[in-house]
Design brief:
The chain is of the alpha/beta class and 355 residues long. The protein has 13 helices and 13 strands. The strands form two sheets. It has a seven-stranded parallel sheet with strand order 3-2-1-4-5-6-7, with helices on both faces. A six-stranded parallel sheet has the order 10-9-8-11-12-13, with helices on both faces. The C terminus is likely disordered.
Length: 355
């Protein structure tokens, strides 16, 4: 298949540190190339890929101090993609709502992966374009009625996450993610203080969350019990998660997937998470971690989580959340969309397409 992958421009593909969508897109594009597909990746110019790279901007927008309007560049990206739509069998968008108005104006079908939760505003746009083909990244994400072609869980390359059989001594809890209210870093701090554990925290701080960080997080950072590591590289991330006794996932929102959970489990570290969004689909309760109804319960479950098999955590990721399984899912989605597209346009009647 000739496939256009359309990535966000805020981070490069794959990201050097934080950037879940860009990491998924990078794995997807490279594996599709390995499987013989002709893939064109529309992304920032500093991206690293096996696909043919079409650079929309020189580098990740977040790294360019001269860029103030990210949407302007992604609209430029969309224009470039759809002006060349005839060159592709299928366009795969990871941009959210922006391509929806354009996707229906060309004959090449577009599939949209929903990487984020719906807001009151975006739900109106998606509902208006409900006939477009969508892929959810968890079943819990399907909170409005759309033309869902499938659910494809995010996958990681487990080889990039060394398995660590024993956590470091002295032990600690880990938190990894954006320092924003919905990710719950303030709850992670409360859990550490309630349980008496050391907490190591890493992740990026967006400008929109700067005030939250300064008011709710910074006053608790003492460099001893509560440690802040900043934005870390991939290797540092794997080391942080792998050496932890437990990773905390104390979110406050309907998480669409939560890549941090499978990254932690891949290193062998179990996850204690709050029961919101995709968590019940990702954490195997009693095997790879525990799903809790309150933040107080999360603290109380720490002793039981220490008894879980770290090998069992790793195996669960290998069974469910690898790049190979993710790309199997997307290939099935692509075949379904193209078969429906050809039938709709009268090219075939009931023949099954294979690639």
């Amino acid at each position: 298949m000739r496939i256009a992958q359309v990535a966000p421009l805020r981070e490069r593909v794959p990201p050097p540190s934080y950037g879940g969508i860009e990491l998924v897109v990078g794995h997807l594009a490279d594996e599709l190339v390995r499987r013989g597909h002709e893939v064109t990746l529309f992304a920032s110019g500093d991206s690293l890929t096996l696909a043919k790279l079409e650079a929309v901007c020189d580098r990740a927008l977040r790294l360019d101090p001269n860029v103030s309007n990210y949407d302007a560049y992604e609209l430029l990206e969309i224009s470039q993609v759809y002006q060349r739509a005839a060159e592709f069998d299928l366009i795969h968008s990871h941009l959210g709502v922006l391509p929806l108005a354009t996707a229906g104006l060309v004959t090449t079908p577009t599939v949209h992966t929903l990487h984020n939760s719906f807001t009151q505003d975006t739900a109106k746009i998606y509902t208006h374009h409900y006939k477009q083909p969508y892929v959810s990244i968890s079943n819990a994400q399907r909170q409005i009625d759309l033309n869902y072609v499938g659910t494809v869980y995010n996958g990681i390359d487990e080889n990039n996450y060394p398995f660590i059989a024993e956590p470091s001594n002295p032990p600690y809890l880990a938190f990894l993610g954006r320092f924003s209210p919905e990710k719950g870093p303030h709850h992670a701090i409360a859990i550490a203080k309630q349980s008496g554990w050391c907490l190591k925290m890493a992740g990026k701080i967006d400008e929109v969350d700067r005030k939250f960080f300064e008011q709710e997080i910074a006053p608790h950072i003492d460099g001893k019990q509560i440690q802040f590591l900043g934005e870390v590289s991939h290797n540092e991330k794997a080391e942080l998660l792998g050496n932890a006794a437990i990773t905390l996932f104390p979110i406050t929102w309907q998480e669409p997937f939560g890549l941090v959970m499978i990254e932690s489990m891949a290193t062998g570290t179990p996850v204690i998470a709050i029961n919101l969004g995709s968590v019940p689909e990702v954490v195997n309760h009693g095997v790879t971690g525990f799903i809790c109804q309150s933040y107080e319960e999360m603290a109380a479950m720490i002793p039981k989580a220490l008894e879980l098999s770290r090998h069992g955590c790793r195996k669960d990721v290998e069974d469910k959340f690898t790049v190979s399984k993710m790309v199997d899912g997307y290939e099935a989605v692509y075949r379904k969309i193209l078969e429906n597209h050809l039938q709709k346009n009268g090219f075939i009647h009931s023949a099954k397409i294979t690639y």
